[in-house]
Amino acid sequence: MATTKWAVDPTHSEIGFKVKHMMFTNVSGKFQQFEAAIETEGDNFENAKISFSGAIDSVTTGNADRDTHLLSPDFFDAAQYPTITFTGDTFKKISEGDYELTGTLGLHGAEKPVTLAVEFGGLAKDPWGNTKAGFTITGKINRKDWGLNWNAALETGGVLVSEEVRLNIELQFVKQ
Length: 176
What we know:
This protein is mostly beta strands. The chain has one domain (3-175): Lipid/polyisoprenoid-binding, YceI-like (Lipocalin, Beta Barrel), CATH 2.40.128. The protein contains 1 helix and 11 strands; from the N terminus they run E-E-E-E-E-E-H-E-E-E-E-E. A hairpin with a 2-residue loop joins strand 4 (34-41) and strand 5. The mean pLDDT is 90. InterPro entries: Lipid/polyisoprenoid-bd_YceI, TTHA0802/YceI-like_sf. Residues 5-174 form the Lipid/polyisoprenoid-binding YceI-like domain. It comes from Flavobacterium kingsejongi. This is Lipid/polyisoprenoid-binding YceI-like domain-containing protein.
């Protein structure tokens, strides 16, 4: 069977994350510049080869001061580590429409394995005849596993920024 290549449609995709702030509210952010690709056997995504890279300096949370802090050595250290990467190792079907994606997340000079839940939205043709595939990817990582250790203690106990980062990713791919 022929290999099929899929390219991300960035105008219909979002790489998002949420982190608890002061232990009781979530702050959301996203990467605005990224690339992703998938290689499959035909239109079957099981065992697909998946790759992703994003520009750290494209992170936005809707607050310029917070974004500047995130890019500093306290967090992402964008000057030294300008890219976040992911390479998928396995993409296996769990049940109809549900998959498990395991791969390596490269961030802040470290590479660590992660497992993410994937909901396959299906295939469809857009009005221009392009075949599209949609995916919702979720998971949790501990930012300290990648050396993102900065924090501040709160007077009431607890810390300013949670160690747990929730990933909320919506990806639409175009068959090449």
